[in-house]
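WARN retry 2 of 3 for item q-0093 after timeout on previous attempt; input resubmitted unchanged.
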Amino acid sequence: MLFGRTPVLPTPEQALKGRPDPSFTVPDRHTVLGNPLLGPYPEHLETADFALGCFWGAERKFWQTQGVWTTLVGYQGGYTENPTYEEACSGLTGHTEAVRVVFDPSVVSYESLLKLFWESHNPTQGFRQGNDVGTQYRSAVYTHSPAQAAAAKSSRDAYQKVLTGSGYGTITTEILPADGRPFYPAEAYHQQYLDKNPAGYCGIGGTGVSCPIGVAKAPSADA
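OK item q-0093 returned
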């Protein structure tokens, strides 16, 4: 079932058990932005988690955005603790290939990041993204506040309307709380992969349909 032509998410009982601690170390700093990869982060910053296919190209989309303080790639949304890349690619962890984006909301709004997220991939493809097939390539937004959840769902609904008008199907993106869905950083060689390997593989590609959501300053955490 898990290795057939049609990918299927494992149940918690089927998933690999993982390990209590990571089996590898993560670099201290971002190779492009120069800031720390792992928290705690400065208090004025916010965190957003996105999955939109192969995380190599997805991460680059975000680190190129003004107002983004750091990015890192990892595994999220599944069951296996501290998975390896090979385990995630087996389909037996339930995780997505995710990008954590730490940003300054006074410079770039969460809505702007959502617009970049939607336009950088095809969110209607289920367990695949282009030629990359597997449950780890599914589209997802893991939210860190009620405001993020509301913005993500509103943007999904707005984008669905224009996608439908352009002949695309139903958006399959998961929108779920990050709480209870830990982000497990990936191995060192995956972090900023396309900075280290400029000619490396990038499977990220959008639909060409613009997402009609605002780019105004995001509401404050107290709003």
